[in-house]
């Protein structure tokens, strides 16, 4: 008998399962996209420690706001990247780090750290 941990899911299937608060599907989502989001976070916040926190918060935000995804407007991965961008912006703001973010050519985007808060 095939279990949820054995099956390969499409993003749409993962979305539907996560919407039902299926934790195994959420683990699949993290396994599929965690490294990609981490790479984006490292580039955006320019710190391993900050990137770890942004990735964790991004996936918590996905879990908590899964009902906001609308498949007719964008792909699930594009929505995940949008959640990441908002999370990174909120995180940098919370640390009083001045930055700019360029999203005019989305899905291409860039963060530029202007000034970090001095303790």
Report on the structure:
With 119 residues, the protein is mainly α. The chain is built from four helices and two strands, in the order H-H-H-H-E-E. The longest helix has 23 residues, at 23-45. It has a single domain (11-115), classed as RNA polymerase sigma factor, region 2, helix turn helix motif (Rna Polymerase Sigma Factor, Chain: A, Orthogonal Bundle), CATH 1.10.1740.10. 58% of the residues lie in helices and 9% in strands. Strand 1 (98-102) and strand 2 (110-115) form a beta hairpin.
Secondary-structure map:
Elements: H1 11-19, H2 23-45, H3 48-65, H4 76-94, E1 98-102, E2 110-115
Helix pairs in contact: 1-2, 2-3, 2-4, 3-4
List keywords for this structure.
mainly alpha; 2 strands; Rna Polymerase Sigma Factor, Chain: A; two-stranded antiparallel sheet; 119 residues
Give a brief outline of the structure:
The protein has helices spanning 11-19, 23-45, 48-65, 76-94, and strands at residues 98-102, 110-115.
The percent of residues in helical segments reads: 55-70%
SS-derived structural category: mainly alpha
Tell me the number of structural domains. Answer: 1
What's the total count of β strands?
Answer: 2
State the end-to-end CA separation: 57 Å
Average residue-wise pLDDT: 90
> What is the CATH C-level name?
Mainly Alpha
The CATH superfamily is known as RNA polymerase sigma factor, region 2, helix turn helix motif
In angstroms, what is the radius of gyration?
15 Å
Unreliable residue runs: none
Question: Percent of residues in beta strands?
Answer: 5-15%
Helical stretch tally: 4
The H-and-E topology, N to C, reads as HHHHEE
Looking at the overall shape, the CATH architecture is Orthogonal Bundle
Dominant shape: globular
By CATH, the topology is Rna Polymerase Sigma Factor, Chain: A
Characterize the main sheet.
2 strands, antiparallel
The spatial strand order of the largest sheet comes to: 1-2
